[in-house]
Amino acid sequence: MSEGSDVRQFTVTSEDDGIRLDRWFKRNLPDTSFNLVSRWARTGQLRIDGKRATPGDRIEAGQTIRVPPAEPVTAPAKATPERRKLSDDETAFVNEMVIHRDAAAIVVNKPPGLATQGGTKTTVHLDGLLEGLMEGADARPKLVHRLDKDTSGVLLIARTPRAAAFFSKSFSGRTARKVYWALVAGVPDIKDGYIDLPIGKQFGTGGEKMCVDEEQGLASKTRYRVIERAGNRAAWVELQPLTGRTHQLRVHMAAIGHPIVGDGKYGGQEAYLTGAISRKLHLHARRLRIDHPDGGQLDVAAELAPHFAESMAYLGFEQDAGDLPLDEIKFGETAEGKRKAVSAAAKARRKERKGERRSRGRG
């Protein structure tokens, strides 16, 4: 079939390998609306290697995309707002965080107190500093996951659209392994266990707060291991989230009666220790292991934030003892027993708190 002179042909590049066709339009023909792309698909005008295509089709490098002639623009396109130019100090600040860099990925050690992304009343954030990591590249680096503002540690940034799609798939498919370190109040009875408690939003509290919700919450699982203890006062624990719920580690540890030190939001006054222990949150993304788009694995660890390191030294903990073997997690018979025990402890804890509230009410 002969093509009209205005019909456009595009070859899929390696940077767009594996993405959806509608995403390709957003990247390469941003002025083309989704409704128009859908209409082209319905009428058979949109094709990949000569075959009819739909907006949800995945494309591969080397394929040819046939696109109908551009339609007249009836209204001026919205101007894309220019990003604020970073100062030399801001560029230096974001580059000082970098602990790994290759052709596909940048890994930073995010400091506590720096938000990952912007939001209401949040104008300073890591996402707004990513231009400082471009180093002359055409594509702006892209966040592929996030950390809470007060959590420090490993944060992965993709350098190309292809890498972003690859890493995002690893996170959504739960093939990436994330290891956190935390100081918690008290010492869990079970030293190596699983917490399997559903989490949902807690309404009416103002702001973003989550809670254990056994009726409507989403399935949430955390593996934890006690590394060291300071008597019965505190413990240093390793946490591995097996799901990715908002504030999951903080909610789960508070639910079993051992809130993360400094987490007043979920642990109340129990989360604060006396002595030379900082009141900041003691939660650190220590390590990330994830498949690399160019083959092999990316395995990076981040040093503790100063306040966390100082608290560790005060409690007599040696950081060299912290990196436990990253064994395979299997929910076998033993794990199920641990899970039930931890869930039972959390339920008992909640009943105890309800009883305390009723007693105060009668007094």
Can you offer a commentary on this structure?
The chain has 363 residues and is an alpha+beta fold. Helix content is 25%, strand content 23%. The strands form three sheets. Strands 5, 6, 7, 8, 9, 10, 13, 14, 15 and 16 form a ten-stranded mixed β-sheet that branches. It starts with 7 loop residues before the first strand and ends with a helix. About 2% of the residues have low confidence.
Question: Could you say which overall geometry the principal axes of the C-alpha atoms support?
Answer: elongated
Report the sheet with the most strands, covering strand number, pairing sense and barrel closure. 10 strands, mixed
Number of strands: 16
The run of helices and strands is EHHEEEHEEEEHEEEEEEHHEEHH
Structural class: alpha+beta
Quaternary structure type = single chain
- Per DSSP, the total helix count is 8
pLDDT under 50 segments (min length 5)?
Answer: 331-337
Radius of gyration: 25 Å
The separation of the N and C termini measures: 87 Å
Mean pLDDT, all residues: 88
Helix coverage percent: 10-25%
